[in-house]
Amino acid sequence: MSTQAPHNTLLIPGPIEFDDAVLQSMSHYAESHVAPGFVKVFGETITLTRKLFQSTNPSAQPFIIAGSGTLGWDLVSANLIEKGENALVLNTGYFGDSFGKCLETYGAQVTHLRAPIGDRPAFEEIEHALKQKPYKVITITHVDTSTGVLNDIKTIAQVVRRVSPNTLVVVDGVCSVGSEEIAFDEWDLDAVVTASQKAIGCPPGLSIVMCSGRAIQAATARKTPASAYYASIANWLPIMQNYENNKPSYFATPPTQLVHALHTTLSQITARPMAERFAIHVAASDRVKAAVAELGMTQVAPKPECQAHGMTAMYLPQGLVAPDVLPGLLKRGVIFAAGLHKEIAPKYIRFGHMGVSISDPNRNDVDKALAALKEALAEAKQAKGL
Amino acid sequence: MSTQAPHNTLLIPGPIEFDDAVLQSMSHYAESHVAPGFVKVFGETITLTRKLFQSTNPSAQPFIIAGSGTLGWDLVSANLIEKGENALVLNTGYFGDSFGKCLETYGAQVTHLRAPIGDRPAFEEIEHALKQKPYKVITITHVDTSTGVLNDIKTIAQVVRRVSPNTLVVVDGVCSVGSEEIAFDEWDLDAVVTASQKAIGCPPGLSIVMCSGRAIQAATARKTPASAYYASIANWLPIMQNYENNKPSYFATPPTQLVHALHTTLSQITARPMAERFAIHVAASDRVKAAVAELGMTQVAPKPECQAHGMTAMYLPQGLVAPDVLPGLLKRGVIFAAGLHKEIAPKYIRFGHMGVSISDPNRNDVDKALAALKEALAEAKQAKGL
Fold first, then answer.
1. How far is CA A175 from CA A144, A354, B331, B366, in A?
2. Could you tell me if the ipTM is greater than 0.85?
3. Which of A178, A358, B151, B230 is surrounded by the most beta carbons within 10 Å?
């Protein structure tokens, strides 16, 4: 029996439904951010973040900072690249555009390699682009929350290392960390930017960034000082190292309750092999995608290899728009998200299937959602005389 | 009967003890950040923030952003001042030094007007400094958490308006908002930077910045673009305006649970006249300071007009250092903070007396703390043969 108040099931691509214990951690009593109890919990949380990324290389460093996922773009843009240096943005829509704007704010010269809606840049195109200029960073949206497009960051990292070995491989993993396979060390990634509220299953409010030794080196051996204060890797690095070594340290007050919640969810997630977690997400995704096809709908990302496993963006049947269907879902206790990609927004809806909604055997959120979707579509079609 | 687990009473200058209802709000079930329920709560929270600052001028704008209080310095430094412009920092210690570093990170030319430990810059010195150069901003630490020094921001703002009327008056109110009187419009302030976890009584994780119309104008009519993305006033302004007008809006995912908690505490705080709240803090502070004197101790801030009302920094009796006394307090269920000002750190301790610890008539935190302090001091003196 859940301890949460009755509510509609939140199945958007983040924030997601929470485990009871995670939410209870949010109500932790007041603690000093430098007292032994909290220092231990924060230090363990940093170590658990390494496990989340399947990383054992001590030169890699997780950062856990009060902020939204967006703050991670500032951490990358203000620390890993200097004014006038080149950045290649693999652009699959909304989030590539915004990451590009963030990079430009800090003085980077940004080149966008854009893919058509629902697709991703081909490896040959990426290789070709990398040969045109020396790029300090390449950024990839691992899962584009606006379209459900999945990028193959493992293969892209291989291409980068072959063609332009010094380019830092930066992954926007806000909508992928915890649901899509990531082997940070093995794939030789340099930075993965994420947030607490998606497949990690913690309430929003934490910016989480995993950096390689190569990225830390780039941030700390800059020709010019980092161009941000709160988003400065140099300012946070000793803090993260100290907490992980069980020493209190102060740069800015950490969000103690959110850190407790992150500790709880990461303890749950890493209690089993990560491969198992990814397989559960793949299985749930396959089930959702089969059901969507059975309902006569296509996905915004049509190619199977480009489809995320923690969400599905589906075009509505001809003649229907999102406001015809979302209220019917809500009436049945299910919340999906409207479209976000501005060129196609009214024509599609987004279903987030990650975290406890698919991993907790006591929940039947996916079955409930698919049944509600079927009924809401039929009702909407009838109302429109389709 | 509190719903919180039994714990030692946290009486540091933030984070502070929480009201049960505030902590319960932290466990709010998952919600979409753009769904009507949350949009209403966030919008109301922005409006309640105006009340907290006793502001009715519609051109003023509160910002509530996921982050620590430190992020507010970046908001000021990246938006209100441009590269090469002058900033005058009224420096009473640790936080003035850090705010200065933040301003320099974004290219400001910083002049520190330093006061001796425990004192504050005199009005004549401030007037003299303002006449030396055109300053774009002046920053004042309202209450210096490291020493308990209170600045008279009302009079300083008057001096600025008389001598250098275009200088933006920026207040670091992290340790003052909610415990010290602030009349934002009436005192003609331009920016007050604060955080959720001190006298506001919400868990840490929210950066709260109140800007005047003049500050918004400076931020949006810059000669050069703002030099931050996440900390950009231009990026957040339409979001705050939309939420307050009950319209969903997206720049970065707000920390929904923390916003609920802030809504709860601000509803409680603003349910009574702010003047009453400030008077309660003054009365509690007077009681603490009298007791400290009776125990033979002096304050780091010796002048009564320079003493904060939400905290007391006290020098320990000759021969004792913080590690002699803090464990004795902890043994009696009370947590004070060690010294923070590096030149005097071991010689003093800090007692935070703000929020529910002094305003909730069902709590007796101050009595408990003063009794524990008396016993811990006696015990420490005995152990040292003093």
1. 7, 10, 46, 46
2. yes
3. B230
